[in-house]
Amino acid sequence: MYPQSHFLFPLFIGELLVKLGYVDQRFVIIAVLVGVFVDLDHPLKHFFLTGELNPRKAWNAGIVKHEDDRTFIHHTNGICFVTILFIILSKYSPYWTAAVMIGYYSHMILDHFSLKKGFIDNMKPKLYWGFWKPVSITILGFELKLARHEIVFDVVMILGLLFTFF
Prior knowledge:
By secondary structure, the protein is mainly alpha-helical. The protein has one domain. It contains seven helices and two strands. The protein is globular and about 45 Å long. It starts with a helix and ends with a helix. The relative contact order is 0.16.
């Protein structure tokens, strides 16, 4: 899924937890930053594959050319490794580890949920389960192919956020 979804999902979860009185806004900021910045591995992998550190080319390689630009943190072994790391870190700082976990796992849920086969490790080039043809747009040279289910998800997250604020 795209950055706006990776931003909105942990923001919604965090704001809901704030509304329930479990966490503060700093917790939400950490969760949102982690949820979005987990994808920094895409341009890094592109750099290691091509030698180019160009955000637009890295983005479009993943979207247009379907380059497998995910590092191990998006795959089964990486998720298991990160989970073990979270278990260890939670012994020292459970509150902040929980914030990072919400960001990371919300990101993984969205990435894996949007695939037909259910897990990135089983992914063939861009096997999104959206039953409809994605909406294709270009913004400042960045290609976007938004699946309609992601647009619906984003609207639901925005409505959920409005609910948490009122």
